[in-house]
Specification:
The complex is a heterotrimer of chains A (486), B (449) and C (130). By secondary structure, chain A is an alpha/beta fold. Chain A has three domains: 56 residues, no CATH class; 254 residues, Type I PLP-dependent aspartate aminotransferase-like (Major domain) (Aspartate Aminotransferase, domain 2, 3-Layer(aba) Sandwich); 123 residues, Aspartate Aminotransferase, domain 1, CATH 3.90.1150.10. Helix content of chain A is 36%, strand content 11%. In chain A, the strands form three sheets. In chain A, strands 1-7-6-5-4-2-3 form a seven-stranded mixed beta sheet, sandwiched between helices. A four-stranded antiparallel beta sheet of chain A has the order 10-11-13-12, covered by helices on one side. Chain A has a two-stranded antiparallel sheet with strand order 8-9. The longest helix of chain A has 37 residues. Chain A is globular and about 75 Å long. In chain B, strands 2-8-7-6-5-3-4 form a seven-stranded mixed beta sheet. A four-stranded antiparallel beta sheet of chain B has the order 11-12-15-14, covered by helices on one side. In chain B, strands 1-13 form a two-stranded parallel ribbon. With 130 residues, chain C is of the alpha+beta class. In chain C, 22% of the residues lie in helices and 34% in strands. In chain C, strands 1-2-3-9-8-5 form a six-stranded antiparallel beta sheet. The chains are: A alpha/beta (486), B alpha/beta (449), C alpha+beta (130).
Chain lengths: 486, 449, 130
């Protein structure tokens, strides 16, 4: 039954209610009007709600119930690795010695934090077969920007002015966007129908004007790129750097390493592979790993170790600079570190094995009722096409909405762009067989409904707090904040 | 050994492989060329049991001085403010905590509603028309504002006051490298932007003038005068402001800012050694289609019921790709939720109180600390909750001694500006007590003697 | 099959052009608006701006798609349909009439003859529009 709650916090406000507790001033002069010139001061108090603490708790508890999350629902959002987020990570991240440390505390007073960062960077470097890792990027897209900027700085240091970066048409949108911000012309490379790189076409496109080739491995169709070593060698022969989007790293832990495949740079999404929570859209963390030739260009500062002492090294004249004010999303780093220490090398390998097994199991169970984008076996996710259902008037969006009614979050839809009516399903290793079976049963039920009772799909969702929303109205008449008139 | 985060038992694996028609998981890896395979286990520390891991992590954490173990006067963009207890409990609700970007709005109304509330609160505090769902941190927000100003004005120069946080400037420089946007400085020799100099530097090539208030040194800037200078040249005014101060200080939008960015960490987000933080980003209505990041809008559902969606998405990377207004995808939604709950809890009077107490205690601290012989305020301009303190002895010699006595005394300014090598940046929030300030003054007196 | 008026000329990118004395009126075709879906925003140049044949002059957006607008001919923009700012849905409702976008005073020569005829454009969209 849908929760009919429909309040915003502003609509609960009652003048005079208080949700906070602060002491009275204990210093002689507390009147800001005597301490600060009037021209800097706000005339009226800000129009924020006046509610009790319990109002706040109940309101946000009720809002939370309007969400599906991994803790409550199977969340097969492809490319996002919506795995279980261990509770231990949260306990550890809340230790005062992590959560309440100031970024500019003297280094001598932050040795534990610096040690954690140093060890995590080495662990990630080992996992990816890279020589050095910067933990600073705040999310995958910022890791991409850092990576491409390092490639740019590298070429410049060699007196080369390359202007283009190649990106497959199957890439995540952040790849072309990050590349463009880094000052490159983005050249889209057509993939083969099975999503693999068209190596011959690539060979023709590579020239001395190409700075980098940026690709996702396994690719966005959930397939390992079989000719990847040949591809990186081809690129290197033309002086082209190769960047791996690490969004799909969950498929290859302990199985293969980007560095060993010939990649020069790769980023990590700690909020995907390394269990830091997705938080409704972040914060994430997007460390970036590089081979030795790019190491001088890493963002500053770099955490160094000298004997038993850890420090922040700022003296790096060839660095691309900084990406965020401080050292990285440290709170997320603590969680990822805790996870890696929990799993160990065998555990991480087992993560990928089971992620792959689960994805193949789903693919197998659904292959009769949906078209598979590419025949298996797949890696950690599988891409289906609803083109058969589309002919019956049922789109990927419709299927996604119907899944919500059946108690599942939806797969990624319409991505990758090269697959018609794409449904990208990533179960992750943390889901049990009975959940996968229930999901597959639901998908098969929807396939049947598309043939016999499409209305139930078109009406969906009906069990959620709201039904399908008018996106057109939202975009034509943007209403981006609450006002008293509503 | 079985992992508690993986459900499949060997028997289940066997049954699933049987269904797939594979003999082993290894058979599923056929597409990976043999020479690409890692032939050894990863060289990582072996798995630790939960109890052992807690012991290890607790030991690591114990090596860090923190806001509970020490009396902290550290600021410079990260502040030890009061965090009401409900925030942590509410954000840990799995429906918030373990959801992702609300791509399916019908199953994400909780996140969408909270972001809509957040946008409303930030617009109100900053005095702007519209706020986005968040950028990574204050520095990357400023960098995004610089790129946005470049794209809106089609001009290639950003003029920054030297009193803008130097680390924000470094981040902005990183983002401006690719598009070839140049950064120029305006001096701030007396702790506030030299506006006469700004008038000389800002011209028809300037995309934006950037000032911060209170600025890096804690001093208040004349935002209205800066706006006049920027607008006279056809440039935008970008103001960096800390929203936790805006219960007391005027919203920069009311003083002429076109874009307001800032670090929202003070709004209930833990220090966390500098991240994750909360990048605040707000702008005037006419700039909304050039804004970076996500925006939530109100609309109606099939039955006419109010609902919320991600909107104006054609600005974003997943649609506009290389021509997107920004590359940002994952932002810091959970930190924005902390800020929303914080602002709901503090409300219209609580936020004013936080600002008043911080100001009062900072001014008391300044007067008390400058009674220490040889210690003085470096700048005379009005300041808010932070100030540059000139010491008679090199700060790097004073700080370790104070740390041993339980005080994180402040941020030495030497690393940011050599001319201020004898200065310490001291921040005082509402959490500091008169007794702590008095004890700090006494300890400082001994340390500099 | 979408409506393709005979008296107009067309671009391969789905703009139409209509001769009106010494001026040319420009919009997008019925086929284009169908492909886009509900139009939510149109960004157009200002009066006085110069446009160049086969180069972009603006953008039309639906909820989940963005399309560049390409000028059929070069020239100076002498009129802009301001109503689309408030009511972009007119592009869907009346693409060849009230949903027009620009009036251009042509500066180039011979560009008109390079444009597709109604029949050629119909063939283009019959092949899937590319």
């Amino acid at each position: 039954m849908a929760d009919a709650y429909d309040k915003l916090i502003f609509e609960l406000s009652s003048p005079g209610r208080v949700g906070w507790s602060l002491p009275e001033a204990d210093v002689p002069e507390a009147d800001v009007h005597k301490l600060l010139p009037a021209k800097h001061l706000r005339r009226d108090a800000p129009d924020l709600p006046e509610v009790s603490e319990f109002d706040v708790v109940r309101h946000y508890s009720r809002l939370s119930r309007m969400n599906y999350g991994v803790d409550t629902h199977f969340y097969p959002l492809g490319s996002c690795t919506m795995k279980y987020n261990p509770k231990l990570n949260e306990d550890v991240a809340r230790l005062a010695g992590f959560a309440k440390v100031h970024p500019l505390a003297p280094e001598a007073s932050a040795q534990g934090a610096l040690q954690l960062m140093h060890e995590l960077a080495w662990d990630l470097a080992e996992i990816a077969g890279m020589d050095a890792v910067s933990l600073q990027p705040a999310a995958g897209a910022q890791g991409e920007l850092a990576g491409v900027l390092m490639i740019r700085a590298y070429h410049h240091s060699r007196g080369e002015k390359r202007t283009k970066v190649l990106v497959p048409d199957s890439a995540h949108g952040t790849n072309p966007a990050s590349t463009a911000i880094a000052g490159y012309e983005v050249v889209e490379v057509k993939s083969l129908p099975n999503g693999e790189v068209d190596v011959d076409a690539l060979a023709r496109t590579l020239d001395t004007d190409v700075a980098a080739f940026m690709i996702t491995v396994p690719n966005t169709l959930g397939m390992f790129e079989p000719r990847i070593i040949e591809i990186t060698e081809l690129c290197h022969a033309k002086g082209v750097q190769v960047y791996m989007d690490g969004a799909n790293l969950n498929a290859i832990l302990g199985i293969t390493r980007p560095g060993d495949l010939g990649f020069d740079v790769c980023h990590f999404n700690l909020h995907k592979t390394f269990t830091t929570p997705h938080g409704g859209g972040g914060p994430g963390a997007g460390p970036v790993g590089v081979k030795a030739h790019l190491e001088p260009f890493l963002p500053v500062p770099v955490v160094t170790k000298d004997g038993d002492e850890y420090a922040l090294d700022w003296k790096r004249p060839r660095s691309i600079g900084k990406l965020q004010a401080f050292w990285g999303n440290f709170g997320m780093l603590v969680r990822a570190y805790t996870y890696i220490r929990t799993m160990g090398p065998d555990g991480l390998r087992s993560v990928s094995d089971n992620a792959i097994l689960n994805a193949n199991y789903i693919m197998k169970r659904l292959e009769r009722d949906y078209d598979v984008a590419v025949p298996g076996p797949c890696m950690h996710e599988c891409v289906l096409s609803a083109r058969r259902q589309k002919r019956l008037g049922v789109t990927a969006t419709d299927i996604a909405k119907r899944l919500l009614d059946l108690g599942f979050y939806a797969p990624s839809t319409y991505f990758p762009l090269i697959v018609e009516e794409a449904l990208m399903i990533e179960p992750t290793e943390t889901e049990a067989k009975e959940t996968l079976d229930a999901f597959c049963d639901a998908m098969i039920q929807i396939a049947r409904e598309a043939e016999t009772n499409a209305a139930v799909i078109h009406d969906a969702p009906v069990t959620t707090p709201v039904r399908r929303l008018d996106q057109t109205k939202a975009a034509r008449e943007p209403n981006l904040k609450w006002t008293r008139r509503g | 050994m079985a992992s508690r985060y993986i459900a499949n038992t060997p028997d289940e694996q066997k049954r699933m492989l049987g269904a797939i028609g594979s003999g082993s998981i290894e058979d599923l890896l056929v597409k990976i060329p043999p020479k690409a395979r890692l032939a050894r286990p990863l060289g990582l520390t072996p798995a630790l049991a939960e109890t052992d891991l807690i012991r290890h992590m607790t030991a690591l954490a114990a090596r860090n001085a923190h806001a509970d173990s020490h009396v902290s006067f550290l600021g410079a963009g990260s502040y030890d403010h009061y965090i009401p207890s409900p925030i942590n409990h509410l954000i840990l609700r799995g429906e918030f905590f373990t959801a992702y970007t609300p791509y399916q709005p019908e199953a994400s109304q909780g996140t969408l509603r909270s972001i809509y509330e957040y946008q409303t609160m930030i617009a109100e505090l900053t005095g702007m028309d519209v706020a986005n769902a968040s950028i990574y941190d204050g520095a990357s927000s400023l960098a995004e504002a610089a790129l946005m100003a470049h794209s809106v004005t089609d001009r290639r120069e950003i003029v920054l006051s030297r009193a803008v946080h130097p680390l924000y400037k470094r981040v902005t420089a990183t983002y401006c490298e690719g598009p070839g946007v140049r950064l120029r400085d305006v001096p701030a020799p007396e702790g506030v932007t030299d506006l006469a100099a700004a008038r000389q530097v800002v011209n028809a090539t300037t995309a934006a003038l950037v000032v911060q208030t209170p600025n890096f040194y804690g001093c208040l800037e004349d935002v209205a005068a800066a706006a006049e200078i920027a607008h006279a040249a056809g440039a935008l005014l970008v103001v960096v402001a800390d929203p936790v101060n805006l219960g007391v200080l005027e919203g920069p939008g009311k003083l002429g800012a076109d874009i307001v960015v800032g670090e929202g960490q003070g709004l209930g987000v833990p220090l966390d050694f500098g991240g994750p933080n909360l990048g605040v980003f707000a702008a005037k209505n006419e700039l909304v289609r050039r804004m970076p990041g996500r925006l939530v809008g109100a609309t109606v559902d099939h039955d006419g019921k109010r609902g919320f969606v991600l909107t104006l998405q054609t600005r974003e990377q997943h649609i506009r790709r290389a021509k997107a207004t920004s590359n940002i995808c994952t932002n810091v939604a959970l930190c924005a939720l902390m800020a929303t709950i914080y602002l709901a809890t503090l409300g219209r009077r609580g936020l004013v109180k936080v600002g008043e107490l911080s100001t009062a205690k900072a001014h008391y601290a300044a007067s008390r600390l400058t009674k220490v012989p040889g210690v003085s305020l470096r700048f005379t301009a009005p300041f808010f909750k932070e100030f540059a303190l000139k010491l008679p002895k090199a700060p790097e010699r004073v700080l370790p001694r104070l740390a041993r006595q339980g005080f994180l005394a402040g941020v030495p300014l030497k690393t940011f500006d050599r001319a201020l090598a004898d200065c310490l940046l001291v921040a005082v929030t509402e959490k500091r007590t008169k007794a702590e300030i008095d004890a700090f003054a006494a300890a400082l007196e001994k340390a500099v003697a | 099959m979408a409506n393709v008026p005979r008296d107009l000329k067309y671009t391969r990118e789905h703009e139409w052009a209509k001769q009106e004395g010494d001026r040319v009126r420009v919009g997008i075709t019925a086929y284009a608006q169908e492909q886009l879906g509900d139009v939510v925003f149109v960004e157009l140049p200002k009066v006085g701006a110069k446009v160049t044949a086969a180069k972009t002059f603006g953008v039309v957006e639906s909820v989940k798609a963005v399309s560049d607008l390409f000028a059929p001919i070069s020239g100076e923009v002498v009129e802009v349909n301001g109503e689309l700012g408030q009511k972009p849905e007119i592009v869907n409702q009346d693409p060849y009439g009230k949903g027009w976008m620009l009036v251009v005073k042509p500066s180039g020569k011979g560009e008109w003859d390079q444009l597709l005829t109604a029949q050629q454009y119909e063939e283009l969209i019959a092949q899937g529009g590319h």
